[in-house]
Write a structure and sequence with these properties.
With 529 residues, the chain is an alpha+beta fold. It has 4 domains: 2-165, no CATH class; 169-271, Mth169, Chain: A; 283-351 and 439-511, no CATH class; 357-434, no CATH class. The chain contains 22 helices and 5 strands. It has helices spanning 2-5, 21-36, 42-56, 66-75, 84-97, 100-108, 118-132, 136-148, 153-165, 183-187, 195-204, 227-245, 283-286, 299-306, 315-330, 345-370, 378-384, 389-402, 413-431, 433-459, 469-493, 498-511; strands at residues 169-179, 192-193, 216-224, 256-263, 270-271. It has a 5-stranded antiparallel β-sheet. The radius of gyration is 25 Å and the shape is globular.
């Protein structure tokens, strides 16, 4: 779970790839109203509903008898707005929410043969807590504290159940402005705080004021589940102020905020700039193209500019720009208009195939570099003879498949545990690559189609209040970054077009581990006779 809560730093293959079941149900309920307004298509909502049926099926938090029976019945048919079925779904969500984590605790507190698998449990609990509105930084501290005292799985889930039942608290939040254009307008606001009062508040709450240049500030009383969530709300208000100041005739964009936000009762100031959402395109550095911006513009260049808000931009531009980049690269006017792939959803499916094909290579390469036993072993010797990363990844894959060579993670305890989970995932994948890759494709497709639906709600519905907007970016940004990384690499090294790479990926998923001897480490590599 600590991996899942480390937003800026965890590689994309080890992040959360989906929302929790309850948020998925809320998202489906909300989609009905957007379909009624023609913002989403009926086909898109039906696809969402059918996929959700398979996702929530094994979720023991949704009950074993009456709850599950009602849910299965509702998801078996369309849920138009308005309809009796849609009204029942809203009520059912609230019934399922009550005691959701407790039911998972009951599943843990049973015989070993019946207990959920550790990674399934970790993903479910982590997703649910994030979906409730807890900030990842707060949950990381919570999980680290449980880890430090060596809590059992049951204790972890019971602690999570307590978090799930907690109510929002009231927080006193201070935003400090360094530059205050049109000061009389600021001073008219009831929560305006003059310079002297700002310093007084900071000292009262035992914050350092050394080197802080104050022009004034605003105090907000907000309700949130944790201090980081309170700071997030204040951050959004600062962003709105700065956006409004950009429309001034003079002093355009003149509002300047301090680099931190202060929350009463929280020991440290919280950075105004949030952590990046994890959209990393490493090919720009690895292929030496970070500063190479002269010459002819390629399609990938335009896409990278469109996707730039993904990491730290405001929610609306991040969603719109991220999807625009995907659509610009992976759609074509000649694409067949399939009912199941309404609109431009085909772009999400193509990117999902590319990401799935890059997943084994990314993890196996990382494991090869992490293999550092105290005494050299057979795998160490084999890896020492490898000249390239693809050879290292292939060596680890062969060892895992045969069962004779298993990587030995090194480094910090938490890093070793993260690597051990990755080893288990890769061991399953090399034994049955088609099954594991197809499951990954399904998961990525759901996440990327969610990005497409959210983009339609933002641009066509004019709303940035969707129930899954935050989760869409938390999950989608790293995946889009991973896909753009592979598309950029292919364009820069091979000159291959995005649609051609997508075709290569889709074919590779059909041929892997078959008569052509295509291995999991070369799914996106060009084939040579």
């Amino acid at each position: 779970m600590i991996d899942f809560f480390t937003i800026d730093g965890t590689p994309w293959p080890r992040r959360l790839w989906d929302v929790g079941s309850l948020l998925g149900l809320e998202e489906l309920w909300e989609a009905g109203s957007w379909a009624a307004q023609k913002v989403l298509t009926t086909a898109a909502c039906d696809w969402q509903r059918n996929e959700l049926r398979t996702i929530v099926g094994p979720d023991v938090g949704l009950g074993q008898r009456e709850l599950r029976r009602e849910l299965t019945t509702l998801l078996a048919a369309p849920l138009p707005d308005p309809s009796p079925a849609r009204r029942r779904l809203k009520e059912l969500i609230e019934h399922a929410r009550s005691g959701y984590v407790d039911r998972w605790a009951e599943a843990v507190d049973t015989t070993p043969a019946e207990r959920p698998k550790p990674e399934r449990l970790a993903r479910t609990i982590a997703s649910h807590l994030l979906d409730l509105g807890y900030d990842a930084n707060h949950l990381a501290a919570w999980a680290n504290e449980l880890n430090a005292r060596q809590a059992t799985a049951l204790e972890v889930v019971q602690s999570a159940a307590s978090l799930a039942k907690a109510s929002e608290q009231s927080f006193d939040v201070l935003v400090v402005l360094l530059a205050v254009p049109e000061r009389p307008l600021a001073e008219q606001q009831p929560n305006w705080t003059a310079k002297g009062k700002v310093i007084e508040w900071l000292k009262e709450h035992r914050f350092s004021v050394q080197g802080l240049r104050v022009g004034g500030g605003f105090r907000y009383q907000v309700r949130a589940l944790d201090a980081y969530g309170a700071a997030n709300q204040a951050r959004e208000m600062v962003e709105r102020m700065i956006a409004r100041s950009s429309f001034q005739r003079s002093n355009r964009g003149g509002i300047v905020a301090a680099p931190n936000i202060w929350v009463g009762g929280h020991p440290q100031p919280i950075p105004l700039l949030p952590p990046a959402r994890g959209a990393n395109i490493l090919a720009l550095v690895h292929e030496g193209h970070l500063y190479r911006v002269d010459g002819e513009r390629r399609l990938i260049d335009d896409a990278l500019e469109l996707a730039a808000p993904l990491n730290q931009g405001a929610l609306g531009p991040a969603v719109a720009g991220g999807w625009a980049a995907v659509e610009s690269l992976l759609t074509h006017p000649d694409d067949p208009q399939e009912e199941e792939r309404s609109g431009k959803a085909v772009a999400a499916d193509r990117l999902a195939a590319i990401i799935a094909c890059s997943w084994p290579r990314a993890e196996l390469t990382a494991l090869a570099h992490r293999h550092n036993p105290s005494e050299p072993d057979e795998l160490s010797a084999a890896l020492d003879g490898c000249a390239t990363n693809i050879e290292r990844a292939r060596t680890v894959a062969v060892g895992l498949k045969s069962g004779s060579l298993r990587p030995c993670p090194s480094g910090r305890k938490l890093q070793r545990h993260s690597d051990m989970a990755a080893i288990d995932r890769m061991a399953r994948l090399v034994v049955d690559p088609r099954r594991e890759l197809n499951e990954a494709v399904k998961t990525f497709r759901v996440a990327l189609r969610r990005l497409y639906r959210t983009r339609n709600i933002v641009l066509h519905g004019g709303s940035t209040k969707g129930v899954a907007l935050q989760a869409t970016l938390r999950i989608g940004a790293p995946l889009v970054g991973a896909g753009l990384d592979r598309l950029a690499h292919a364009a820069l090294t091979e000159g291959i077009r995005p649609l051609d790479l997508a075709a290569r990926a889709e074919l590779a998923l059909k041929l892997v581990d078959g008569e052509t001897a295509l291995s999991v480490v070369e799914l996106l590599e060009p084939r040579h006779g």
